[in-house]
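A common beginner's mistake is to predict each chain separately and then try to dock the pieces by hand. The better habit, illustrated here, is to supply every component at once so that their relative placement is modeled jointly.
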Amino acid sequence: MPLEKKGQPMGKYKYDVVIVGGGPAGLSAGIKLVEKGFKTLLIERGRFCGAKNLFGGIIYTSSIKEIVPEFPEVDNFPAERPVTEEGYFFISKDGVVKILHTKRDPKESYTALRAKFDAFLSDYAIKKGLDIAVKTRVLDLIWEANKVCGVIVDRPTSLEDKTPASIEAKVVVLAEGVNRVLTERAGLVDRTVEPSEVVLAVKEVLQLPKGEMEARLGLGENRGLAIELMGEVTLGLPGTGFLYTNKNTLSFGVGIFLNKLMDLNLKPYEILERAKALSYLRELFNGAETLEYGAHLIPEWGIKAFPKLFGNGVLVVGDAAGLVNPLFREGTNLAIYSGLMASEAIKFAFEKGDFTEKALKRYEELFKESYIYKDMLMIKDLKAILLSNSQLFQVYPELMYQICHLYFSAQGRAKRDVIREILAIIRRKRGLLGLVRDFLKLGRILW
Amino acid sequence: MVKEFKVNIDEKISSVKFFVDEEFQHLKIKDQRVCNQCKAKFCLNFCPAGVYRLDHQNKILINYQACLECGSCRIGCPSKNIDWSYPRGGFGVNYKFG
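With all components supplied together, the output reads:
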């Protein structure tokens, strides 16, 4: 039952579980909860699920199968192209070095656009029996004896009583996204987020004349590209660019740590336009029309700044928790898994008849048993290393270009001289010791 | 270090669909005096929608109608001088692609 009409009273509602936010985390929690038989309401402030959401982006089949087992064999397929080619482009002022991997199983991941993908999940959830109230914003949490027991929304209680409606719930799941305002109100974090803990990403959906995208990128039908761009594309600042092929459009954007933007007083959309003007990309985007511009924050505070994931009557999932792995481009999949774990923990709480943190701690236990916890621990120092080693983003893409340039073009002279010149460039740009140190630093994260 | 590179943000924003709430401004400045004393005025630059601008008296203006609701100003204002909330349910940015 979608509760569509603005101003429709909501006072009479009482649920087992209320979910705040209709992204992948909230929707997967919702689907699993109604499957388990719990009366569940999901509240979304947008006009539909997905209206406020934006990512790079890639979706991963294995995670989606957990909630939509028949995926990708579904009607109204919600994604764009299978990712058949993926890798890194290291962009310097002079040119590009590409590392591309061609995948054997193209059904592992797909490029997607969130307005379509999230809307698909919400349709699926409604069919499963999830109540979704769109165009509704949660104003605050309701507390009773130190326990969250519902939410207050920006809709009237009744036709006569215009005060904001209260909706009761045994458990409230916060899937509110990167701006973790209610998580703060729930007392699950003791400080606000710092600029060094978020990446500001700006993105455009670009359309080329028909057939040009495939021709310029050498793509066949039903083949897709997912590329991370490093180097000059972010002006050498800690962050990355991204380039994904959709069915008929390109998604292109740059993401940079907010504190770095502030340090240098840079406008994110100017960095985006500069990137689009770099030689290789300029040719790619020649004649492109911008269909949509957008911006979003990526929560990169990492496990050290996680909120407490559970409280009395409340759980935190997805971006609100900080569940992204920037090194491996994971986000929506982690959101989905967190939604699944939340639904398991809630089932456990109902079995116990206990909705305090004593029972809901089950969610954290499940999280700590999962691979996600191991990964989040693995990358716990990544942000600090990236922010204090900006040479990684500046020196290396240039170095790689110069080395490749010499390696591939130096004809008519002794190769020992070429190798000497390459070593001299490395010494000048970074120094052999610096190179070893950088590898060790990154290596320490990975093994 | 970085040379000037002019981009018309209004043109970019015109590609985005909004349902503007004329009755509720979801971003407000708590104390204009704090902004007046702020030398850095980071918000003029980092806001990806160009919501924060100066008027001819160097007072900060908020063009909340163009807000992409990313939350950068909530985190980035060094004085936490922005009374930040999302727009009312159903209003604000409405991505077609996302």
